[in-house]
Design brief:
With 121 residues, the protein is an all-alpha fold. It is 82% helix and 0% strand. It contains five helices and no strands.
Protein backbone atom coordinates (compact mmCIF):
# COMPACT_ATOMS: atom_id res chain seq x y z
CA UNK A 1 0.00 0.00 0.00
CA UNK A 2 1.60 3.31 -1.06
CA UNK A 3 2.12 6.04 1.50
CA UNK A 4 -0.08 9.01 0.68
CA UNK A 5 0.47 11.17 3.77
CA UNK A 6 3.80 12.37 5.09
CA UNK A 7 2.57 11.56 8.60
CA UNK A 8 2.69 7.88 7.66
CA UNK A 9 6.36 7.94 6.64
CA UNK A 10 8.60 6.28 9.23
CA UNK A 11 11.42 8.74 8.53
CA UNK A 12 9.08 11.69 9.18
CA UNK A 13 7.90 10.13 12.46
CA UNK A 14 11.49 9.58 13.54
CA UNK A 15 12.52 13.12 12.54
CA UNK A 16 9.62 14.68 14.42
CA UNK A 17 10.38 12.64 17.53
CA UNK A 18 14.06 13.62 17.36
CA UNK A 19 13.16 17.32 17.06
CA UNK A 20 10.94 17.08 20.15
CA UNK A 21 13.72 15.33 22.11
CA UNK A 22 16.23 17.98 21.12
CA UNK A 23 13.87 20.80 22.05
CA UNK A 24 13.65 19.32 25.54
CA UNK A 25 17.38 18.66 25.84
CA UNK A 26 18.24 22.18 24.73
CA UNK A 27 15.94 23.66 27.34
CA UNK A 28 18.19 22.77 30.27
CA UNK A 29 21.44 24.01 31.78
CA UNK A 30 23.88 26.19 29.89
CA UNK A 31 22.41 24.98 26.60
CA UNK A 32 19.18 26.85 27.34
CA UNK A 33 21.07 30.12 27.90
CA UNK A 34 22.94 30.09 24.57
CA UNK A 35 20.06 31.43 22.51
CA UNK A 36 21.86 31.57 19.16
CA UNK A 37 23.28 28.06 19.29
CA UNK A 38 20.15 26.58 20.82
CA UNK A 39 18.06 28.15 18.07
CA UNK A 40 20.39 26.84 15.35
CA UNK A 41 20.23 23.28 16.71
CA UNK A 42 16.47 23.45 16.95
CA UNK A 43 16.12 24.83 13.42
CA UNK A 44 18.29 22.04 11.99
CA UNK A 45 16.28 19.38 13.83
CA UNK A 46 12.94 20.84 12.77
CA UNK A 47 14.21 21.25 9.21
CA UNK A 48 14.60 17.50 8.76
CA UNK A 49 10.95 16.68 9.49
CA UNK A 50 9.71 19.83 7.75
CA UNK A 51 11.55 19.10 4.50
CA UNK A 52 10.32 15.52 4.43
CA UNK A 53 6.77 16.82 4.82
CA UNK A 54 7.15 19.63 2.31
CA UNK A 55 8.67 17.33 -0.28
CA UNK A 56 5.89 14.78 0.10
CA UNK A 57 3.29 17.51 -0.32
CA UNK A 58 4.91 18.67 -3.59
CA UNK A 59 3.27 15.67 -5.31
CA UNK A 60 6.04 14.88 -7.80
CA UNK A 61 8.72 12.29 -7.20
CA UNK A 62 11.45 14.65 -8.42
CA UNK A 63 10.43 17.37 -5.97
CA UNK A 64 10.08 14.86 -3.13
CA UNK A 65 13.61 13.60 -3.80
CA UNK A 66 14.95 17.17 -3.89
CA UNK A 67 13.47 17.92 -0.46
CA UNK A 68 14.70 14.61 0.93
CA UNK A 69 18.22 15.65 -0.05
CA UNK A 70 17.69 18.92 1.82
CA UNK A 71 16.49 16.96 4.87
CA UNK A 72 19.56 14.75 4.63
CA UNK A 73 21.75 17.87 4.53
CA UNK A 74 20.06 19.18 7.66
CA UNK A 75 20.85 15.86 9.34
CA UNK A 76 24.54 16.41 8.62
CA UNK A 77 24.30 19.93 9.98
CA UNK A 78 22.64 18.62 13.14
CA UNK A 79 25.30 15.94 13.70
CA UNK A 80 27.96 18.65 13.55
CA UNK A 81 26.06 20.79 16.04
CA UNK A 82 25.66 17.85 18.40
CA UNK A 83 29.42 17.29 18.39
CA UNK A 84 29.97 20.98 19.14
CA UNK A 85 27.36 20.84 21.92
CA UNK A 86 29.29 17.94 23.44
CA UNK A 87 32.66 19.66 23.11
CA UNK A 88 31.46 22.83 24.84
CA UNK A 89 29.70 20.91 27.61
CA UNK A 90 26.07 21.47 26.67
CA UNK A 91 25.50 17.72 26.19
CA UNK A 92 27.26 14.90 27.98
CA UNK A 93 29.00 12.30 25.81
CA UNK A 94 26.28 9.70 26.28
CA UNK A 95 23.46 12.06 25.26
CA UNK A 96 25.44 13.37 22.32
CA UNK A 97 26.22 9.85 21.12
CA UNK A 98 22.58 8.82 21.52
CA UNK A 99 21.35 11.78 19.50
CA UNK A 100 24.00 11.32 16.81
CA UNK A 101 23.17 7.62 16.50
CA UNK A 102 19.53 8.56 15.94
CA UNK A 103 20.45 11.21 13.38
CA UNK A 104 22.72 8.77 11.52
CA UNK A 105 19.93 6.16 11.42
CA UNK A 106 17.49 8.80 10.22
CA UNK A 107 19.89 9.95 7.51
CA UNK A 108 20.32 6.36 6.34
CA UNK A 109 16.55 5.92 6.29
CA UNK A 110 16.16 9.06 4.17
CA UNK A 111 18.92 7.84 1.86
CA UNK A 112 17.17 4.50 1.40
CA UNK A 113 13.92 6.30 0.58
CA UNK A 114 15.71 8.45 -2.01
CA UNK A 115 17.19 5.34 -3.60
CA UNK A 116 13.79 3.63 -3.70
CA UNK A 117 12.11 6.69 -5.22
CA UNK A 118 14.83 7.02 -7.87
CA UNK A 119 14.15 3.41 -8.80
CA UNK A 120 10.47 4.19 -9.38
CA UNK A 121 11.17 6.87 -11.98
Amino acid sequence: MPVTRFEDLECWKMAKSLAVELYKASNTGEFSKDFGFKDQVRRAAVSIASNIAEGKERETVAEFIRYLYIAKGSAGELRTQLLIAQDIGYLDKESSNDFRTKVEALSAMIGALIKRLKGQR
